[in-house]
Input
Amino acid sequence: MLDYPLREGKALRPALCIATCRALGGQLESVTRSAAVLELYHNAFLIHDDVEDGSEKRRDRPTLHRQQGKAVAINVGDAMLALALEPLLDNMRLVGIGPALRVLQLVSRMARESAEGQALELGWIQDGVWQLRDRDYLKMVYQKTAWYTFVAPMAVGALVAGVRTEDTHRLWRLATLLGIAFQIQDDILNIEGDEANYGKEILGDLWEGKHTLILLHALRHATAAERAHAEAVLRKPRPPERPAVGDAELPTDELVAQLLQAGEISKSAAARLRWHLAGSAANASATGGFKTELDIGFLKDLVSRAGSIEYARAVARRHASKARASLARALPWKRPSQHYDFIGHLIDYILDRDR
Ligand code: FPP
Ligand code: MG
Output
């Protein structure tokens, strides 16, 4: 359970939750449990998301399921969600029953929104849906990212500081704008970021067939033939995970022979493996096979020719500017305050960040 939390992450959600609470005059001790809960949820979401997306890399290292297998990874995520309940109960003692229940209500909505946003995206991938407008993407991102990254952290910070739920509607708009700008920047980094800083697999979104604003724009600007080819590519699964020790370069027969010779598998296991692998190769070629480097190059070129990154960058900037303009009036901030300034700087960071 300590694996992802101990990898170098941004700790954006707890930082934002604490800064919001403090900038409204709340106490640090009153908000730390709630902030920790948000980080626990985040790590659990990432573990499950990595399994669901078949991702290879997280925070500069192989994803947990690549290291430990899917069963262990899913259980670690579940355990984190279970652990998040107790600090929420501690809130009763720390901030009183009323605010503690309001925080619980928000966390419960956050979990629902995140799962619904994820369901939307997984459904599009599963059903090969690509006829989507920007507003479909924005709704999905509002639920999948904005809710748990900005709406919940800021709203929880505000509730703990004593703001009433009915006085947080301006904050919700601000947090939604920030969440959308944040996700679009993430999509941009996935294509043109520097792998050493980004911490995730560059071009992973194309391999995973993610429905980003960038790709939707590129598809809209493609010719009918290009679009048909792109959709066929996107429907193909990514190739199975590459084994860590260079086995990928070996022909299957040779790998099985080596494993047999080294006593790592029995004769009957070798026979069963050969039979199974021959079957999956036939199956893969019948369905058009897996995505290839050439396919990803084609998608990348489509994106570049359509100017889709520039388009996405402009949309992200527009959202961030609106957020910047609405910050001062979003909540009854106590100023001057380093915590308020932190939130202001965060708006620039969302677009300037390289990881
Ligand atoms: C990452 O998006 C998406 C999330 C972190 C949200 C995941 C949500 C769930 C797994 C739902 C879980 C719900 C409950 C209640 C347990 P991404 O794949 O675009 O980002 P990435 O590039 O960082 O992987
Ligand atoms: Mg993912």
The pocket of farnesyl diphosphate (ligand 1) is lined by residues 45-46, 48-49, 53, 55, 81, 111, 114-115, 118, 144, 200, 210 (CB under 6 Å). The CA atoms of residues 148 and 175 lie 10 Å apart. The radius of gyration is 23 Å.
